[in-house]
Amino acid sequence: MDTVNMSEARRRLSDLVRAAERGESVTITRRGKQVARLVPVEQEPLRPLPDLSEFRASITVKGKPLSQTVIEMRAEERY
What is the CATH number of the domain that holds 19? Predict the structure, then answer.
């Protein structure tokens, strides 16, 4: 863990944020007393997406396909 004073933290903020991205933590002091800590954000593990194949198979389509309807509407608009 690195310790920097307030004025140095202002000058090196970009460097300190990069250090936090790498997993390091930085303590910021004012007049020798700790006042803040810059730490990396804890990433929540991504949840896997659910398998929707069963749901997709259960969907029934009524009437003609939407793509056919769009093609017909475009043809009507041209003339």
Answer: 3.40.1620.10
The closest alpha carbon to 22, from 4, 36, 39, belongs to 39
- Residue 45 has which token pair? 């593990």
The whole-angstrom separation of Cα 8 and Cα 15 is: 11
pLDDT in tens, 3-58: 999 999 999 999 999 999 999 999 999 999 999 999 998 878 888 989 999 999 99
Residues paired with 47 in a beta bridge: none
Residue 46 lies in a domain: no
In a 3-state reduction of DSSP, which class is residue 4? strand
pTM higher than the cut 0.70: no
